[in-house]
Amino acid sequence: MLGDSTAYSGFAVPDTAAAAAFYRDTLGLTVEPVPGMEEHGLLTLHLPGGAQVLVYPKPDFTPATYTVLNFAVPDIDEAVDALAARGVEFLRYPGFDQDDKGIARASHGGPSVAWFTDPAGTICSVLQEE
Protein backbone atom coordinates (compact mmCIF):
# COMPACT_ATOMS: atom_id res chain seq x y z
CA MET A 1 0.00 0.00 0.00
CA LEU A 2 2.68 2.55 0.95
CA GLY A 3 5.54 0.92 -0.94
CA ASP A 4 5.44 3.53 -3.69
CA SER A 5 4.97 6.58 -1.47
CA THR A 6 7.57 9.13 -0.45
CA ALA A 7 8.33 8.97 3.25
CA TYR A 8 10.30 11.19 5.55
CA SER A 9 11.01 11.41 9.23
CA GLY A 10 10.43 14.35 11.51
CA PHE A 11 11.12 15.55 15.02
CA ALA A 12 10.14 18.47 17.21
CA VAL A 13 12.24 21.21 18.79
CA PRO A 14 11.22 24.13 21.00
CA ASP A 15 13.09 26.70 18.87
CA THR A 16 13.40 26.14 15.13
CA ALA A 17 15.72 29.15 14.68
CA ALA A 18 18.23 27.60 17.11
CA ALA A 19 17.82 24.22 15.41
CA ALA A 20 18.36 25.76 11.96
CA ALA A 21 21.54 27.49 13.11
CA PHE A 22 22.93 24.30 14.68
CA TYR A 23 22.16 21.96 11.80
CA ARG A 24 23.29 24.50 9.19
CA ASP A 25 26.26 26.22 10.84
CA THR A 26 27.60 23.50 13.15
CA LEU A 27 26.79 20.32 11.23
CA GLY A 28 26.97 21.80 7.72
CA LEU A 29 23.58 20.56 6.50
CA THR A 30 21.31 22.41 4.11
CA VAL A 31 18.34 23.72 6.10
CA GLU A 32 15.35 25.37 4.43
CA PRO A 33 11.97 26.60 5.58
CA VAL A 34 9.12 24.47 4.30
CA PRO A 35 7.60 26.50 1.42
CA GLY A 36 4.38 28.14 2.48
CA MET A 37 4.95 27.24 6.13
CA GLU A 38 7.59 29.82 7.02
CA GLU A 39 5.33 31.59 9.52
CA HIS A 40 4.84 28.30 11.36
CA GLY A 41 8.58 27.62 11.67
CA LEU A 42 8.67 24.30 9.83
CA LEU A 43 12.08 23.36 8.46
CA THR A 44 13.48 20.74 6.12
CA LEU A 45 16.90 19.23 6.87
CA HIS A 46 18.49 17.91 3.70
CA LEU A 47 20.61 14.93 4.67
CA PRO A 48 23.49 13.46 2.68
CA GLY A 49 22.18 10.89 0.21
CA GLY A 50 18.99 12.82 -0.50
CA ALA A 51 16.86 12.09 2.55
CA GLN A 52 14.88 14.88 4.14
CA VAL A 53 13.76 15.37 7.72
CA LEU A 54 10.99 17.67 8.89
CA VAL A 55 11.76 19.78 11.97
CA TYR A 56 8.78 21.45 13.58
CA PRO A 57 8.21 23.65 16.62
CA LYS A 58 6.64 22.25 19.76
CA PRO A 59 6.60 24.68 22.70
CA ASP A 60 6.16 21.97 25.38
CA PHE A 61 8.94 19.87 23.82
CA THR A 62 10.68 17.15 25.82
CA PRO A 63 13.71 15.57 24.14
CA ALA A 64 13.72 11.87 23.35
CA THR A 65 15.96 9.67 25.46
CA TYR A 66 17.22 7.79 22.40
CA THR A 67 19.18 8.63 19.26
CA VAL A 68 17.04 10.41 16.67
CA LEU A 69 19.61 11.11 13.92
CA ASN A 70 22.64 9.02 12.96
CA PHE A 71 25.33 10.23 10.58
CA ALA A 72 27.49 7.51 9.01
CA VAL A 73 31.02 8.83 8.49
CA PRO A 74 34.08 7.27 6.86
CA ASP A 75 36.41 8.36 9.70
CA ILE A 76 34.88 8.79 13.15
CA ASP A 77 37.99 10.36 14.65
CA GLU A 78 38.05 13.03 11.96
CA ALA A 79 34.31 13.70 12.39
CA VAL A 80 34.51 13.92 16.18
CA ASP A 81 37.54 16.22 16.03
CA ALA A 82 35.83 18.51 13.50
CA LEU A 83 32.60 18.67 15.51
CA ALA A 84 34.48 19.26 18.77
CA ALA A 85 36.32 22.14 17.09
CA ARG A 86 32.88 23.65 16.36
CA GLY A 87 31.89 23.41 20.01
CA VAL A 88 30.01 20.10 20.00
CA GLU A 89 30.28 18.21 23.28
CA PHE A 90 30.00 14.44 23.24
CA LEU A 91 27.84 12.47 25.63
CA ARG A 92 29.07 9.81 28.01
CA TYR A 93 26.92 6.80 28.81
CA PRO A 94 27.43 4.47 31.77
CA GLY A 95 28.21 0.96 30.64
CA PHE A 96 29.82 2.04 27.36
CA ASP A 97 33.58 1.88 27.06
CA GLN A 98 34.25 5.32 25.53
CA ASP A 99 37.67 6.80 24.86
CA ASP A 100 38.87 10.33 25.72
CA LYS A 101 36.98 11.73 22.72
CA GLY A 102 33.72 10.06 23.74
CA ILE A 103 33.89 7.38 21.05
CA ALA A 104 32.60 3.91 21.85
CA ARG A 105 34.87 1.82 19.65
CA ALA A 106 33.43 -1.03 17.60
CA SER A 107 32.89 -4.25 19.46
CA HIS A 108 30.93 -7.38 18.74
CA GLY A 109 30.53 -6.39 15.09
CA GLY A 110 28.85 -3.04 15.79
CA PRO A 111 29.99 0.38 14.63
CA SER A 112 32.17 2.88 16.47
CA VAL A 113 29.85 5.63 17.67
CA ALA A 114 29.89 8.99 19.46
CA TRP A 115 26.74 10.76 20.63
CA PHE A 116 25.94 14.46 20.95
CA THR A 117 22.87 16.65 21.23
CA ASP A 118 21.44 19.58 19.33
CA PRO A 119 20.47 22.74 21.28
CA ALA A 120 17.10 21.17 22.20
CA GLY A 121 18.66 18.00 23.60
CA THR A 122 17.83 15.81 20.58
CA ILE A 123 20.37 12.99 20.56
CA CYS A 124 22.39 12.54 17.38
CA SER A 125 25.40 10.36 16.61
CA VAL A 126 28.26 9.97 14.24
CA LEU A 127 29.14 6.37 13.55
CA GLN A 128 31.66 4.46 11.52
CA GLU A 129 30.94 0.95 10.33
CA GLU A 130 33.96 -1.30 10.81
TrEMBL record:
- Matching PROSITE patterns: VOC
One Pfam family named in its UniProt record: Glyoxalase
Domain VOC: where? 5-129
- InterPro entries from the xrefs? Glyas_Bleomycin-R_OHBP_Dase, Glyas_Fos-R_dOase_dom, VOC_core
What is the name of the protein in this document?
A: VOC family protein
From which source organism is this entry?
Streptomonospora mangrovi
